[in-house]
């Protein structure tokens, strides 16, 4: 049967014909930014990652008919909400994947819970997804603002850059990242001397950078992501911010951002990631296959879509169901060990616990190729990286 999908750009099917009596039909919807500031770190690459997961899972050999569709939410909660409702009510979608931009993710999480479906979020960062706005069918896979703050904020403060000024994207993700990093800075003996919020997305950071420059801060914390981070760093270089002695801390930065800036501009930046293509033999092998299909190295968002989809499909196979409450219960009851994130598990609040890694961008002299961009600094265990479930504000997590 032909589907009419609001905003859908791609459709792919895997597995047996739907007429097979003992088959399980599954429809996965990749909902993300396909045309804006997060398109490179998310976008079509997340669709490729989902398809790879379906193929690697071997759905066809397990009597599972899996379809992958996609749409552009344009980083707008109202558009994301409309697509999610149509997908669930009319198009038979069982799970939504990716959903960068925290404001859109929080809206989709509510609709998903009402529909008793599953949201596996790889692209958004707000801790509210597993905190005060948690939902029992939301799985927050890849990273969150607390883990980023613990890694980058802690490392920069400990090296002596004690006075911070924040340049923050004015929406849920930016607010959460600023708040979590402020806690780390102050608990480490540092001081926050000011902050300014910029529109999302933004192109001109000149007035915000001048405020940061005049603040007397040791470090300017960029509580934004994607194209906003890239533009802010480029313009900081143009204004001579770093040459005047102030450091930049990119609190969320992706390999695609560093690649866009180049090692000459980004060298020395410290950043926190859940995944890096060159981390070990397994990540290199998977990333080579991804690059062959997509044309560039994967981000941690792409890796999270792949790993989250694999765990979801295991749950559907094990339970024989696509009901959100049934699948979520299995995903939380069973740990995983995959080639991209290693060992991990899903907590009752939906937070996925796995290691995070601190990296430093290589200098041009150190880099041996266009994607050879990081030096590994340290590993942060999942238990240390993410906030504890107790006291998170998630109403159902501490019941029973």
TrEMBL record:
Q: Which UniProt keywords apply?
A: Amino-acid transport, Signal, Transport
Q: Any keyword Signal?
A: yes
Keyword flag Transport: yes
Record-annotated Leucine-binding protein domain positions: 26-362
Which InterPro entries does the UniProt record give? BCAA_transport, Leu-bd, Peripla_BP_I
GO biological-process terms attached to the record: amino acid transport
Q: Which residues form the signal peptide?
A: 1-20
PANTHER family this protein is in?
A: LEUCINE-SPECIFIC-BINDING PROTEIN, PERIPLASMIC BINDING PROTEIN OF ABC TRANSPORTER FOR NATURAL AMINO ACIDS
Give the family from UniProt: Belongs to the leucine-binding protein family.
Designated name of the protein:
Leucine-, isoleucine-, valine-, threonine-, and alanine-binding protein
What is the native source organism of this protein? Limimaricola hongkongensis DSM 17492
Taxonomy, top ranks, is: Bacteria, Pseudomonadati, Pseudomonadota, Alphaproteobacteria, Rhodobacterales
């Amino acid at each position: 049967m032909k589907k009419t999908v609001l905003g859908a750009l791609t459709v792919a099917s895997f597995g047996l014909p739907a007429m097979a009596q003992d088959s399980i039909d599954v429809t996965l919807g990749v909902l993300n930014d396909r045309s804006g500031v997060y398109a490179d770190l998310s976008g079509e690459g997340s669709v490729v990652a989902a398809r790879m997961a379906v193929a690697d899972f071997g759905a066809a050999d397990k009597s599972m008919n899996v379809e992958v569709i996609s749409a552009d939410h344009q980083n707008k909660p109202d558009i994301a909400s409309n697509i999610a409702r149509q997908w669930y009510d009319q198009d038979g979608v069982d799970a939504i994947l990716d959903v960068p931009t925290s404001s859109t993710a929080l809206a989709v999480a509510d609709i998903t819970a009402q529909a008793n479906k599953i949201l596996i979020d790889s692209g958004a960062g707000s801790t509210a997804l597993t905190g005060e706005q948690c939902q029992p069918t939301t799985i927050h896979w890849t990273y969150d603002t607390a883990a980023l703050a613990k890694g980058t904020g802690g490392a920069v403060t400990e090296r002596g850059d004690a006075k911070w000024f924040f340049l923050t994207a004015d929406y849920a993700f930016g607010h959460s990242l600023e708040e979590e990093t402020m806690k780390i800075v102050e608990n480490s003996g540092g001081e926050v001397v000011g902050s300014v919020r910029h529109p999302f997305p933004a192109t001109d950071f000149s007035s915000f950078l001048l405020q940061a420059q005049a603040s007397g801060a040791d470090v300017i914390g960029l509580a934004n992501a994607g194209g906003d981070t890239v533009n802010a760093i480029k313009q900081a270089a143009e204004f001579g911010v770093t040459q005047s002695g102030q450091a930049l801390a990119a609190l969320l930065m992706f390999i695609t951002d560093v690649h866009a800036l180049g090692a000459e501009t980004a060298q020395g930046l410290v950043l926190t990631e859940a995944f890096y293509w060159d981390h070990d033999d397994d990540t290199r092998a998977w990333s080579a296959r991804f690059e062959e299909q997509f044309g560039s190295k994967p981000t941690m968002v792409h890796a999270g879509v792949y790993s989250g989809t694999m765990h979801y499909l295991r749950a559907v196979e094990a339970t024989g169901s696509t009901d959100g409450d049934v699948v979520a219960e299995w995903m939380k009851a069973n740990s995983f060990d995959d080639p991209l994130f290693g060992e991990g598990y899903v907590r009752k609040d939906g937070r996925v616990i796995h290691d995070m890694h601190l990296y430093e961008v290589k200098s041009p002299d150190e880099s041996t190729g266009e994607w050879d961009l990081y030096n590994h600094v340290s590993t942060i265990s999942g238990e240390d990286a993410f906030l504890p479930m107790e006291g998170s504000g998630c109403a159902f997590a501490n019941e029973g």
